[in-house]
Design goal:
The protein is mostly helical and about 120 residues long. The chain has seven helices and no strands. It has a single domain, classed as Ankyrin repeat-containing domain (Serine Threonine Protein Phosphatase 5, Tetratricopeptide repeat).
């Protein structure tokens, strides 16, 4: 793999500022996500346009395993995109209940205030 011979993990950004980790997460490429995280790709880097993170990309389209890998790699589940959406918002809005549950479990009974600030209001 290119990373093994010294390729940079965060080069090749798109015109929106998406990095390789964003693209791998968006398309559900678990092996690529794992390799990038192992080579210290920043799981919390945000796109220049829209502020999406790799985690919000995965959660919006329903890639559970990728979301799990990113969370294990220290992705911030409370990161907020430019439009105010969190990974939990996107998973919930797009019907990915299993991912929404995974995100809630990250708090293990802790402070869910970020979700309750208008995000859980019914």
């Amino acid at each position: 793999m290119l990373l093994e011979v010294g390729a940079k993990r965060d080069t090749g950004r798109t015109d929106t500022g998406a990095r390789p980790l964003h693209v791998a997460a968006q398309f559900g490429h678990e092996g690529v996500v794992t390799a990038l995280l192992e080579h210290a790709a920043d799981p919390n880097a945000a796109c220049r346009v829209g502020g999406a993170t790799a985690l919000t990309c995965a959660c919006q389209v329903g890639h559970f395993e990728v979301a799990r890998l990113l969370l294990q790699g220290r992705a911030d589940p409370t990161a907020v995109q430019s439009d105010g959406a969190t990974a939990w918002d996107l998973a919930s809005q797009h019907g990915h209940a299993e991912i929404a549950q995974l995100l809630l479990e990250q708090f293990n009974g802790g402070d869910l205030e970020f979700l309750m600030d208008g995000h859980l209001a019914t």
